[in-house]
Sequence to fold (162 residues):
Amino acid sequence: MSSIQRAISELRTLLESATVSIQTVQKHGSDSDEGQAAQLSEDNSKLISAPPNGEWNQKFTIELIPDTFKLKISIVLEDGTTVYVTSKDASAGDYLLVSGEPTIYGVGANESGLTISTEGKDGVELYWTWITGFPGPQIVLQTWEDFKKSNQAWKFVKDTTD
Fold:
């Protein structure tokens, strides 16, 4: 079984739970950076990153597309509305936004963890990438070559607070 097949098998088992936290795999800079999680911004418009906290704004539902290595990612807002993580017509450097229309992401695996990607508007594959900077840690789309692969590795952690 290849690393991608093993990762997908483990992912399918994990996703039988209701929600997951999407977290960085490797340490990025200072000790306080380890274990960052994808989080919905305060204005509910995009994904940022923050230390895992188990709150609603870090609980994602992953829907695997049958017989593929593709998925949709959604989150339920405080008012009960479901929105999707989207990267429609994305370019390198764009934020991951949320809307009523999902983007179908590809999922891959390497020695570091899972990769989450989508095709950009120019046909180039763009990967979820964790970066630091102003106004704080962010999650943006970048090409594989633009960044070290370690900050493009992710893991799905079962939510145990439900």
